[in-house]
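Please produce the structure of this protein holding fructose -6-phosphate.
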Amino acid sequence: MCGIIGYVGSKPAVDILKDALTRLEYRGYDSAGIATIADDTLHLCKDKGKVAEVIKNCNIDNLPGYTGIGHVRWATHGGVTRDNAHPHCDAISQIAVVHNGIIENFEALKSRLVKKYHFKSDTDTEVIPHLIREQVDAGLSFEEAFFAAIRQLQGSYALIAVSTLADGKLFAARKDSPMVLGLGKDANFIGSDVLSFLPYSREAVYIEDGECVVMTKNTYQIYDLNHTPKKRESVAITWNLSEAGKDNQDHFMIKEIKEQPFVIRQAMMQDTRLLNRMAIDILRAHQVIFVACGTSRFAALIGRYVFSKIGHTFSDVVMASEFGYFSDSVDKNTMVIAISQSGETADVMDGVKQAKAKGATVYSIVNVEGSSLARMSDKALYLSCGPEIGVAATKSFTAQLCLLYLLAFAMDGRLSEGKEKLLEISSLIEKDLQTNLSEISLIAEKLKDKRDFYFLARGINFAMAGEGALKLKEVCYVHAEGMPAGELKHGTLALIEEGTPVIAICPTDYTYTDTISNISEAMVRGATVIGISNANQSIFAEWIKIPEVEMIFYPLVTVIPLQLLAYHSAIVRGFDPDKPRNLAKSVTVK
Ligand code: F6R
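Below is the modeled complex.
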């Protein structure tokens, strides 16, 4: 959940690292810091706060040198304080380390090290520079000391170390946390993702679990933990810089919402043979289980409906963090479909590892190329929606739905028909976006003081109620519940009072009549009903009009107003929708 970056090259490190941290900020924004090496001295600046605040308050520009590391933090161990910010150093400030992950045995290590060295923070990470120091003090070279220290760590880590004892080299290690090396001209980079060094490199080398790297500006060498060299080819980076910018929009979230018509067209450009192959394997499996978290799980819930309605195949959805408790029923005839934007979510990775250990086939639907999930899966479909930087998932959800529709149509032997239908939907969404933008900001303004929201829907639209509520919670910090409309009367109705906003997702499909009847029950008890539908209804206090489409495609058209409602509600309440409190984009801890 943190972002790390290391640079060694011929330009001042601080300029590159500041820029990288700004682009990594979506991974964590509790605190930030940079350490560089120059003239046999370690130079350090760090503090709590967002990257821009830390850069402004910390005199970061004065850090000299051509080798350095940087970090943005999403706190796990230890509160949000300057002392807990990374980089962390050894007691005599010769070694600095940045880390993403959790060192599970840090208490045992610390209880030994604290007798020899002074600790300044409450973090698990701080054991790492002290461990390296201990090995140096025992007479090892810095390189040997680094490997000896890493071998003592348990847990997950992507970490980078610099030292005055290391001839300007960068040292890095990875286990269960993403790490990728970027090759540049007279410069090498290593970071949590390619976005961190995108302007400077078009060539990446993905580091695997249990590997370490030693880098200079012109060389890199990968090793296993026993210090045995390994070879790895580089791959081209396909993302481009313009995709990673805000494109004159106020926030990434709105830019990414507006991109969705294009995202649908882009997601459709799949390898037809691969889709058909995967569809056949899904049909042959004895059981099909989707594994995902958060927004990706809501996409999976819709996948379950379309696999049934179009592909005539029953499947189930298991929340990734709960998957382990069901692994007894997984075997070699099981098809696990893992859905993840980042491809790095620890809960998903954990589920997939367990499924593989039981012999299951694992297919994934993922956005980030080269991500751990993509590399671990038997086959992967890419969302191709470009980098999603807003912390709240928007365009990746729509792209996930597209791929699930395509798979379902392929399962029914109607892939071309499915593609044509999706193309029509993308044009409808394009028109709809124009009209919905201003209208929804007015509704958001009217709901500005509300603290409790209920999102209701039935059937295939139920997952949209969940997704709409999740978006609002994430960016507006209000209580929001998404539930099947029929469940309301079984308890939650007691919470409805005068003026409680109820968002009803009720297109005129097979769910319409029953949903309207459930919403009426809420309305007569005082609820203010905001209807998202292709048809107006007298019980709606506000009507958000959506285009009329074939029933199974309603999730693709209802998602846009739900996302816009969350976005505008955040804006009218004065919150930054791109950096919701307590959250970060990629959840790489369990
Ligand atoms: C919601 C959101 C999260 C993610 C979840 C899974 O807007 O962003 O709920 O959907 O953490 O992330 P991925 O898809 O990267 O596995």
